[in-house]
Amino acid sequence: MDSLVLIDSSQLTSESFEKLPDQIMYPYAEQYDLQKHIMSGTQQIICSIIHFLKNQLSDGSLTQDGCESLEVAIQCLESAYELSEKDLSDIKVPLLEILKTHATAPLDIAESQEATPEQKTEAEKFKSDGNNYMKTGKYLEALDCYTKAIKLDGKNAVYYCNRAASFSKLNNHQAAIEDCKNALKIDSTYSKAYGRLGLAYTSLKDHIKAKASYIKALELEPDNESYKNNLLLTEEMLANTSNASPNFDIGTLLANPALMTMATQMLSNPGMQNMMSTIMSGNVSPGSQGMDALLQAGQHLAQHIQSVNPELVDQLRRQLNNSDGSEVPTPEQEPGNEEL
């Protein structure tokens, strides 16, 4: 009978966990950060690039200086993206295979042949595999599966739409747009394709086209809360864009006629004239008293504007907020990655 091993799970580290015998490893799996073994789509691409560069080192076609430069590049990539040896050894799709698969001329949907029943069955399997890869964050593998499904059955709108989702996860939003358009060529009533088209346009900050896409999606599926929320957010983005001053500066502020009118009225006040004369003449005492005088002048101006023209204050506040480079909320991703 095997001896009983007592382990304080609170003391487990990634290194000690990996040294545990197989028979006692899995009861502690939930307490271990298994997410570190699930690479992002970007990391998968980088691993494929590193794998390609290492092959270049071994084929003897580079000079010594070239090899040294590649070795440095490989080390930098491994460090920058925090890749382990396990990550680098788990290359599902080589870089050249990616290029062969996806860097081809666009498929002419009208000329694609009708798939046989056997091809449709195989394509559905690839789609199912792609959906599973999407759920685990393996977007590159998902992309490969959807592409294989399309090659087998090029007239199925779902495959293009699902591949668009994987392209979006890999930040290739233009490719996602093209796939959504291909899906809509096949099925012009496919609301999910319009929804994903809107998300892709939003990622490229083309809010006008995003709005049109969400409107079309809602026409086809009026009760979809995700489309409703995304349309509202996109309209908000468009409103903020139209009201924003991209290069807001003091010149913009002084060009506001309402503000200049208020400033003129303030400066005609005898008390304010005396205060400003003291400040401009340099007779303000140094230290906190001088600063107090400046603050007092500013407070008087702000209070006067607020009391006489509160709308102007709100307008200035919006201008300042729009000029600080803050991000507008991003439309939500639709729930789930599979087409159901």
TrEMBL record:
What's one GO BP annotation on this UniProt entry? post-translational protein targeting to endoplasmic reticulum membrane
Q: Which residues form the SGTA homodimerisation domain?
A: 43-92
Task: Determine the domain of life of the protein's source.
Answer: Eukaryota
**Basic and acidic residues composition-biased segments:** 117-128
**Keyword Repeat on this protein?**
yes
Q: Which SUPFAM superfamilies match?
A: TPR-like
Stored Pfam families: SGTA_dimer, TPR_1, TPR_2
What keywords appear on the UniProt entry? Repeat, TPR repeat
| Family to which the UniProt record says this protein belongs | Belongs to the SGT family.
**Name by which UniProt lists this protein:** SGTA homodimerisation domain-containing protein
